[in-house]
Amino acid sequence: MAKTKPKLHQSKNPIAENVRASNVALLQKHLATAVDITYQTKQAHWNVKGMNFIAVHKLFDELHEVTEEFVDTIAERLTALGGQAHGTVQAASENTVLEPYPLDLVNSEDHLRQLSEAYARWNAEVEKGIEEASESGDPLTEDLLTEVGRGLDKSLYFLESHFQS
């Protein structure tokens, strides 16, 4: 099923309307995923148990704060291009690239592995998005996604370090 071209608000933004529209659609997917991963991370924060509880509990809270900033940054770029940000939980569940987070996880290792998978999956999609934004001629969206990618790389490093020696 083909996505319809988003209706844009009037703007004096110098980027061509077709480029803005394609990048609004691109950013909607990343906004949905940012909302999703923000609350997947919070789900882990609320429910983690185990010997390393406090360290992992705090890590998850820090990662939640990072992804929450991505939500705002992505939504603001999307609206600057003339789009309407779809940032509700319902919109996120329809447009995220992530798998649903298991609600029965307790063990810190299980949460760490699940979040590692989610962060890696989104990071791969961000890499594709950087390329799309570059090819479309929108250096600011490309730069925004590059910033998100750097943050995801760092977060993934923090998560995966628990399994490396």
UniProtKB/TrEMBL annotation:
What's the name of the protein?
Answer: DNA starvation/stationary phase protection protein Dps
Ferritin/DPS domain ranges (all copies): 25-164
Q: Which UniProt keywords apply?
A: Coiled coil
Q: What organism is this sequence from?
A: Pararhizobium mangrovi
Coiled-coil spans in chain: 105-132
Gene3D superfamilies, alphabetically?
1.20.1260.10
Q: Which InterPro entries match?
A: DPS_DNA-bd (IPR002177), DPS_DNA-bd_CS (IPR023188), Ferritin-like (IPR012347), Ferritin-like_SF (IPR009078), Ferritin_DPS_dom (IPR008331)
Output the CDD domains linked to this UniProt entry: DPS
Q: One Pfam family for this entry, by name?
A: Ferritin
Protein encoded by which gene: dps
Q: Which family does it belong to?
A: Belongs to the Dps family.
* One Gene Ontology molecular-function label: ferric iron binding
